Each structure stands twice: as C-alpha cells, then as structure tokens.
Amino acid sequence: MAAAESPSAALRRRDLCSRGIRLAGKMRADVVDLLDAYVEQQGLDASASVAAVEGVPLAAVERWDEQTGTQRLLENLAAYRAFRALLAQMLEEQREQLGEADAGLGRALAAVLLQVSAFVYHLEELLRLESRGIPGEEGDGPPPPPRLSLFEQKLRGLGVLRELAQWAVRSVRDLRQLAKPSAATSAASGTAPGLAESP
Amino acid sequence: MFSRWNWVACGFSLVLSICSPDASGGLVQSCGHIIPESPVLALGSNFTALCILNESCLDFGNIYASQIIWKIKNRVVPKEQYREINRTVSSVTFNDTSSLATPLTCNILADGQIEQNIYGITVTVGLAPEKPKNLSCIVHQVSRFTYVMTCTWNPGRHTFLDTQFRLRYSWPGEIFPDCIPKDVNNSCSVTDIQFFVNTEIWVEATNALGKAESDPLVVDPIDIVKPLSPQNVSVSSGVLPTVLKLSWENWISGPVMTLKFNIRYRIVGDTNWMEVPSEDTASPRTSFSVQGLRPYTEYVFSIRCMKEDGVGYWSDWSEEKTGITTEDQPSKGPPIWRIIDKSHSPACWIVHLIWKALKPFEANGVILQYEVTVRDKSSLSAPVKKYNVTSTNHTLQLREGTYEVTLIARNSVGASPPSVLLIPASNSKAPVKNLRTLPKQDKLWVGWTAPNSYVLKYVIEWCLVSSSSDCIIEWQIALGDVQGIELKGIKPFKCYLITVYPLYADGQGSGQSVKAYLKQDRPSKGPTVQTKKVGKAEAVLTWNHLTVEEQNGFIRNYTILYKTIDGNETVVTVDPSKTEYTLSSLTSDTLYTVRMMASTDSGSRTGPDFTFTTQKFGKGEIEAIVVPVCLAFLLIVLLGVLFCFNKRDLIKKHIWPIVPDPSKSNIAQWSPQVPAKHNFNSKDQMYPEGSFTDVSVVEIEADDKKSFSEQDLKPFDLLKKEKTTSEGHSSGIGGSSCMSSPRQSVSDSDEGETTQNTSSTVQYSTVVLNGYRDQTPVQVFSRSESTQPLLDSEERPEDHAGGADSPAQRQQYFRQNGGQDEINTDRPCFERTKQITHANEGDLVGFVQLQISGQSSQPLGLGMEKNTQEAALSNVLQTCTEGQTVRPETVEENPLSVDEMPKCYLPQTVRQGGYMPQ
C-alpha cells in the first residue's frame, strides 16, 4: 500500500495531516475559550462533573499506541460526526433559549461547529487517501436525544464541549502519529481488520 | 406634415381599437402583437421579429400583413427586411442588432394612406458577461478572533446589461452562502472564514444573456492572512550599553498561526532604517534583544509579523517606540588645536587651547569635564600642570618653548583616550603643497598635496574674511592619509581664508593659506570713481577697492567706461590691484562722464557716474602766453619811459608849460601913469571904492567837441546853465571886451552857442591897477597861480618878439596863441579872435587862449594908453569899436567864452601885495 502510494498522494496526505493537526489545535483553543464563556453565560460551575455524553466515543482509550492509523481515523470520524450533530443541536437550543441576546456565544458555537465540520472533511479525505470507504453517517449518528430539561441541556452542552476539548487533543496526537512516514505503513497494514470490523 | 399624419393615424387607431368587436375585458384591444416580447439581444447578433395581426381586425378594418410597416423609433425599416409569412403575419429581420433601437413598432397603412400603430416592443441590446479573471483573496485580521477575507477580481468588459456578480466558496462537503458585492462589481468580503481547510472560491457573473464563472481559487484561508501587527511594543535598556530589549504582544494565538517577525530600528533624527537579520526573528516570540547599538543613543523601533512559513502577507509595521542605550566611556579624545598670541611679547605666549566637543557617538554619554595637562618638554624638571575645564577652550600663558598638551574627556562611566597636541617653538616643518579649493554643491572641498614626510594629521583652519570684524577661526582635523576635506557650513558669496597645517610626530609644519569662495556673485556695488587731477588731455582717476563684503567674489578686473556727452563710450580694463588710472588723449575743455565697473567671475556691477571737464589750456600754456606779453608790455613801457625821458623838454613844454615869472616881466620896470579917466566910467560905477582888479580871460578853443571828452565838456555845460541863471556874475566878469553891454552879452549867450561849441575860454587873472578917484593907484602886481598852460607867446617870448611890432604891446596882456598871435596882433580884436578859433580847430586843441573882454578892455586900454605905443593900441581899440558896431553878432562870442569858464577861475578879490590864486 505504501509502495503504491504516489508522491502526490503522500504529499497530499502529509498536507492533510498538517492542516488537521493545526485545525485540531485551533479547535481545542477555541473550545477552551468557549467553555469559559459557556460556563459563565449558562451560570454553571466550571468544576461541575458531567456524565459522559451519550453517543460520543470517549477520547480516552486504552492501548492508544497500539491502534492502527485507519482505526484512529475512523474513531475520530465517528466522534466528530457526533460532535457535529451535538453542536448543531446546542446551537439550535441556544438560539431558542437566548434568541439573539447573546450573539457572541452563538457565533463561537457556530465557529466551533464549522471547525468540527472541517475536521470531519479532513478525516474523510485521509480515509479516501487510504483507499478506504467512508462509513455512512446514518448509522454513525447518535440516537435522537431524549427531551431534556433546560438545565440538563446546559449540562449536556458542558459535557459536549469538555469531551470535544479532549478529542481535539487526542486528534492532534492521532494525526501526528499518522503523519509519521512509518505510520502510513502501519496504518495501511493495520486498518484492514479495523475497517472490516467497522459497520 | 408628418406629425399631422400621426395625429390622424392615432385617432384612427383609437376608433379601430374601440370599435373592435372582440373587445372584452378592457376598453382597448390591440389588433396585433409582436413576437418576441421585449427581447434582450446580444450585440452584433441577428434578430427576427414577427408581427401577428388579430383575425378580428382583418374583418373589421380590412388590414392584412402586406400592409405592415416596421419602424425603429420613427425610422421606417427598409421593406427588403420584411417578409410576409401569411396574411396575418409579417416578419422583419436585422442582421446586426447594433442597428436596433427602442422601440421597434409594427404599423399598418389603413386605407392605403393612414399609418396605424399596431404594436411595439422594447429591444435591449447588450453583451453576455465575460469570465471574471485574476481572482485573488486576502484575509485581514480585524481583531484577535475576527478575520475578513476580501476577494477581488477583474469583472471583464461592460455588458450594457444588469449583471450580477457573486463570490462563492465551498468545502467539498459544504456550500457556504454567496457573497454578493454591494455597489461594486469587482470585490467582496467574507466574514465567516475557517482556517485549515482548503476552500474553493470562485466568482459567478450573470445577466440576461448568460452566466460566466471564474476559475476557482482553492486556498486555505490561513495561507492568505495579513495579521495585525504586534501590539504593546516596549523598549528597555539592558546592562550592556549596546543592547536594547524589544518586547511585544501578538494578536494571533499560537494554535491558529505561528509567526515570524521583522524588526527595524534607527537613531532618532536619522531617516535610514536598519533591520535585524530576518533569520534571527524567524521563530515565534514576544521579545528580542537588539545588539550592536551605540551607547547613549536614542533609537526608534518598529516590528511586523507574518505566518512563520512565509505564506501569506506581512502585517503593517507596528507603532514606533523609542529607547536609549546606557552610557559608555568616550571612545576617543576630543580634537584639539591652539591659537598662539605672541603680540604681547614674543617670549611670552598667550595660548588659546580650543577643542571640539565629542560627537554623541564618540562621547557615549554626557561629558562632565575635560582634563587638560600641559608639560614643558624643554624642561624635564618643570612640573606638569593640570586643569579641569568644563568648556571647550582654555587659555594659558606660556613662555616660548615646546609643550605637550594632553586632553581627556570624562563622562559618568569613564575617561576618553588622551588627545595630544605639540606646541612647538616655531613651525619649521615642511608645509603642504599645491593648496587648492573646489566648490562641491553646498560644501567647499579643500585639497592639498602632502609633504614628503609622514604626516600624523592635518589641521585645517578657515575663517570668514570681513572688513569690519576679526577673522573668527574655525578648524577641523583630518587624518594624515587624506589629501582633501570638505568644509561644511560655508556660506556662498563670502570670502574664506583657509589655512592648512601638517602635524608631524615631532612638530608641525607652517601653514599654507588660500582664499576661496563657495559661490561667487557679481559685486553688490560698483567702485566710486573720481578724479585726482584733470588736465587738458588727460585725467587721473582714483577709486577705492570694494570691501570684501561688497566684492562677492574675486575681483578679476576693473573696467573704466568714459565718454563725452555725444561721443562713443570708451572702455578701458584695469588690473584689479590698481586704484588709480590716467585717461589720456582726452579732448580739451570737454565734459566727460566716467563710471567704473568691477567684475567677478559671476558678473559685473557698475558704480555711479562721475563727470569732469578737461581744462582749456594745458599746463604751462598760460604761463607761455602771459609771460611774453608781460615782458613785451614792460619793454614797451620802458621804451616809452626812455622816449619820454629823452623828449622830456618837449613833453614838459606841452604838458607843463613854463609860467613866466611876472617879476621878471618887463612890466616890472613899467610904472603906470594915471589912466585915461574916460575909459573907466562904467568901471567906476561898479567898483566905486578903491582899486579893482580886472579880470583877464584865457580862452581855450577847440575844433570840435570830439577832441574833448564829455567830462571835459561838462564844466562848459554847467557854465552855460549858470550863465542863464546868474547874470550878475557874467556881467561882472565878462563884459564885452569890445565894450558891449553886460546884458547884451548875457542875453545873447544862447545865440552864440555855435561858437561855444568850437571854442572854450579859460579865464586868467590879470592885474589891473586903478587909481582911486583920479588918484595915482598903488602899483600892485597880481599874479595868477593857475597851473593852466599859458599862452605860447608867454612861454616863448622869442616868438612874440619876432611877431610883435613892439615890446610894449607884449607887456599889455598875457596871451598864448601860438604863432598866430604874432600874425594877428595888428588885426582887429574880433578878427583875431576869430582867426584863433579857426586856427585852433586843427592843431591847437586844448590850448588856452587868453582873451581880453568886457571890463578888461579898459585896463587893457589903460595899459595901452600908458604904453608908449599908443597909436597901435588905439588902432586896436578902434577896430574893436568898429567891429562891435558893424558886426554885433560876433561880439556876442566873448561873453560866451566867459560863461564857459570853470568856477575855479572865477575872479576873486585881489589882495594887496599878493597874487590872486585860481
């Protein structure tokens, strides 16, 4: 696979990784800033513990270094697709709650949402370069969330942003791993089972 | 005419429309329409329109397609472009839409003559949009989190149609809202920018004739960012005097963009920027220490940034910030020089030490003081003298000798290296050669040829030459390896004296001087010329040199221009060192105008005019004329004197005749007898008492008045007047010598004027002795003291002797009548007198004539009676009587002669025993 990879494809891959890394880094920084604004604006405690958000894979994973590249890409893709849906829901809830009263928070949420979408595009492009099919979004999307109270919505939003911040850090590490020349080989050799396992 | 037909057509059309049987849904229904309806056509394309008539109109108005006329505006389209498709449809074709105009109307000729409008359309002609080109985008950072992407493109040609441009951008999986430009068609700004994703950007142009898209621009917006420049820039000085630390804040966070920087700096007051090497600031940072700066110098800093990889745009330069480096010890000693004043005493100098303040980059701080050390090199035992000075000069009194002066500048950090100056006893070393100057723009270049010996450095002195103040010396030191220097601060049109001294290791050479101008101008005034001396053909002109302030340059020559009033101007060029010039070959006694012009390399200026007149005579000419004339005059005078001296007797006889001494006269021996009584009747009546002195008259006759000056004649005129007013005098004196009555003689005086004009009479006194009442009179002699010339006969008794018949006759009266007296002696008194008068007209002018008249005739007669020659006397008396009787008019002449006598000759009372002076 690696041998079959053309120089332009390798260059493209490296470029996508590089951009993905920088995008993930910016996304993390923006999410951190957004978290502060969100906590303050929603009247939450920054130290409040939030249960895991349903439908979002946890960033923390055991034996992370043993994952193949494709596996990393697929996990990232699934996570960010989930974040995209959750952030879109948050943005809609935000508009419903505050209207145009706090346009700044809404713009920040929209910006993060856009970055998540961009990162999803990066991941999909990388998967294409791996000559792997891109899993459909239908099955990957989280189940429709149950109707929650306003406070629960705020807490869920806090949980989404915290997890997104975690995933941004992991994504940087994953893409750096993928950017390494040796990683391409391992990713290629190791992704087959992963892909086979994926739905 | 055409418009009238139009009105008719309109009216007909209205009738057609209203009367149309198919009219439903409205009052007006058209009888036809055009296809296509209001088309938009491409410029240059062909176009065909159809006019379709309604069937109902065919029946009602009997109109068919063959009657259709197409018009563009009011212009009928040529029928060659028509085509009748059927009885209700007519088409028109245009091969080029550029000939089309709005409106395009379909008309019909009703009843063969009346033109009726059926329908009209608006035709729009334009162009399809071109493909937008040169699309480019830049992302401006507006604030910390806000970025605006502005894209510009070339919209292409003008389409003449309403064309919409829109900027579109998308990710592969996401389409973003279009950016529609406002008010422009070549740029649009997008605020919703996401970095790190390749975005496809393109421009779409659309109008009624089509749509065009630009080539897509695929770019990650992060690669086209122009970031904001760093903010809060600050400058701080460090420990080292050559380092300043620059700190700032970045607007862009690291996750978004890592930056590299560009730092520039300059010294305050300088315009040239220096830059920190870019490789030193190619990594992200928020501070940088700039090294290699000058101590105690104020610098200005500015910084900019861009994405670290160099993809994108540099930010603008940040605001400028200043900082000052710390002090350091002076880097060099001050340049020092001296001025030695030996005027007071050759053995004791007054030495003015002068030095220049160090330049800021040399002083490296604030100079607190200067330390001057003077060591007498001629005496090792002499103590070293030290002075602390805060100014840049110091004056010493030194004995003549050789000294070493050391100067140190000190600031708060330390002292400078010493500057050493040798003051020798004399400037005995070799001077520079070939000293010259050359203006270079606003600087004066001074060049020289170095001496053969090694020169440590040169001292260049210069000062502004002034006639009113002393030369204030400025100076500069040049290194020994240069042979020229540019002097700054030199004013144009001013004379500078420049002196160059070579300084050797063991002394100094003598100075070489040159005068120079940075720029020359013509003199500010011309010389004032005047004459020192003016001669007949030459004039010496003098003038004063212009002052150095007036010269404005080197005076190359003077030009003298002189001319006469109507003559050509003559030009003479004079050496500028002269102040005097002699003009020669001038015309005598001529007015000259002279002026003088001073010339520099840049022009000339003429002074005021001066006029002078050359002399008529040259030097010595007057003397040459006067002296000979005087000598000749003297010679003539001398000759005249000699001549007079030789002829003195003759002259004396004419001018100062000898008056005969009466005492020596023969009458002295004559004793008069008692005179005949009957002759003195009248006399007795006038002078009844005592003796009476008779009056004799000397008559001077002249030929005409021309022989006398008017002055001489005045007395005669005066006498005439007196005679008319004082009859008594004349009657008493004159009387007619021929016994005429006194009245007659007076009254006739005017009539005898003609006679008076040719003769004059001067009265001499005659002594007449009368006895009183028949008594024998005392013999008295009366003598005239008059200086008037007497009768010639008296002066020359020999003539009388020759001419008279007897000596007794000569004693009767004194008479001077030349030679004619002798002739006329025997003639009657009247005739003789007349003859004398005529004779004197020629050659006896001025001579006096003694005439006996009036009362004097009686003594004369008495005398003659007493004379022994009575017969002769009686003859005379008879003749006189006869003459009076026969020719009375001639007698009247005698009183006239008496009247003309000057007053001084008026008769006076005779004193006894003396003469009667006159």
Automatic annotation (TrEMBL), chain A:
Subcellular localization, as worded in the UniProt entry = Cytoplasm
GO terms classed as biological process = astrocyte activation; ciliary neurotrophic factor-mediated signaling pathway; negative regulation of neuron apoptotic process; positive regulation of axon regeneration
Q: Does the keyword Cytoplasm apply?
A: yes
- Which one Pfam family would you cite for this protein? CNTF
Q: Which domain of life is it from?
A: Eukaryota
Q: Does the keyword Cytoplasm apply?
A: yes
| InterPro entries xref list | 4_helix_cytokine-like_core (IPR009079), Ciliary_neurotrophic_fac_CNTF (IPR000151)
**Molecular-function annotations in GO:** ciliary neurotrophic factor receptor binding; cytokine activity; growth factor activity
GO CC list: axon; cytoplasm; extracellular space
Ranges for region Disordered: 179-199
Q: Which UniProt keywords apply?
A: Cytoplasm, Developmental protein, Differentiation, Growth factor, Neurogenesis
Describe the family membership recorded for this protein in Swiss-Prot or TrEMBL.
Belongs to the CNTF family.
Task: Name the PANTHER family on file.
Answer: CILIARY NEUROTROPHIC FACTOR (PTHR15196)
Describe the function of this protein. Answer: CNTF is a survival factor for various neuronal cell types. Seems to prevent the degeneration of motor axons after axotomy.
Quote the protein name from its UniProt record: Ciliary neurotrophic factor
Species of origin reads Rhabdornis inornatus
What would be the name of the gene that encodes this protein?
A: Cntf
Automatic annotation (TrEMBL), chain B:
* Name this polypeptide is given: Interleukin-6 receptor subunit beta
Subcellular localization: Cell membrane
Which terms does the UniProt entry file under GO BP?
interleukin-6-mediated signaling pathway
SUPFAM superfamilies from the UniProt entry? Fibronectin type III (SSF49265)
Record SMART domains: FN3
Composition bias type Basic and acidic residues, residue spans: 793-802
Q: Tell me the first and last residues of the signal peptide.
A: 1-25
